[in-house]
Amino acid sequence: MSQAESTWAAEAAAVFVKDWRCEYRTRYALNTLGLFAFTTLVVVSMVLGPVGNTQVMANAVLPVILWLIILFAVTAGLPRIFVAEEETHTATALRLAATPSALFVGKLAYGFTVVVLLEVLITPLFLAMVQLNVAKLDLLVAALAAGGFGMAAGSTLIAAIVAQARTRSALFAVLLLPALVPGLLFAVTLTRAAIAGSDPGVELRMLLLYDGTLTVAGLMLFPTIWNP
Amino acid sequence: MSTETYLRFHQIKRRFGRLRVLTGVSGEVSVGQVLFVNGANGSGKSTLMRILAGLLAAEAGTVDYVEEGRSFDISERRRAVGYVAPDLALYEELSTLENLEFFCELRGAPRSRAAELLDELGLPHGRLAGALSSGMRQRLRWGWALLDRPKLLLLDEPFQNLDRPGIEQGTELLSRHLEGGGLAVVANPGPLEVPHVAGRIDLGR
Lengths: 228, 205
Known about the structure:
The complex is a heterodimer. Helix content of chain A is 82%, strand content 0%. By secondary structure, chain A is mostly helical. Chain A has one domain. In chain A, α1 crosses α6 (100-129) and α2 (28-47) runs parallel beside α6. Chain A is globular, with a radius of gyration of 19 Å. Chain B is 32% helix and 29% strand. Chain B has a five-stranded parallel sheet, sandwiched between helices. Chain B is an alpha/beta fold. At the A-B interface, α1 and α5 of A face α2 and α3 of B.
């Protein structure tokens, strides 16, 4: 009898695969995020649409709306990353089995892929519905990827913090929104640059730095948050 | 203690708000032995087990777990124990085999151990955990606890919902565990027939 060894990467990968397998069978996060985003998208496009928009106004306003749709969809769906583990009492088994940092990375990878999937579904629809042309598609992809990663990292960390609280939903929004504001500002600016075809400037590097800071903070804080 | 593997806890205290649940509980158990914790509902058995597992912090007192001469800190102890308790649940969306294979990955046990344990416990491989009866769920908890052959088993109401063959099998698994160099703490609200009981703690109430 002896405690066997597992590798950190294998643990993180196992958590990622487990979360997607559970999601595939329940479709809770995808349905919540997708329905919320799609409904908001339809309302926005019907209200704004191509009619009445000047190109200047479109460049200024539409990136903000796109990121707000993504933000509120994420707020509606991603707290489940950890809340579900507490509500169904599977958190006990996870605490006794997983290395906290590997668990954080596995959950972060899952959250990021959910956000990417949401962006892949929503962004083309949004651009088509509001008839917005993107001058630099590669920059838009970079903005969505880096901005989405920041959202996933912030959501994963905040979800872990609020999972054990009684007023989870309210607390999640209260803590998450301030944490995501810097990343959102950079992401919106980058998206505007992509639409206008201008240079990304310092914002892309700032957004990547923000992502890195959230990830490192998560890795450092998570073991303390997760365990008693 | 003469053996190199033991669990010893001293003056464990814990309260929830104004409610004092544990007011200085001490005990020890070594290889081949069971420490039996008895007490009515609400007496603090599960709280003590969670503290011993490292799932809950004690307000005061110490827990020392030494395995083969090496002292384990709380995070090492957490990942070294086998734990059966009513509050331990597995993923209802996953099959029994997928559940145990997932935890094999986390605990570093070979994946084949999952099927081996399910066969031993008489559980179907492909059935979703959410579709198991309460007795089968309890068997699955036993499987979870034994995945990486831990030396220390913490068993909180281990025979809950089990039928007679299930209880006999649990007793047999516990006996084998103890004879193979393991130790265990068993908590139950009533008397329980478990082998090799070397000490008892009565939490009363």
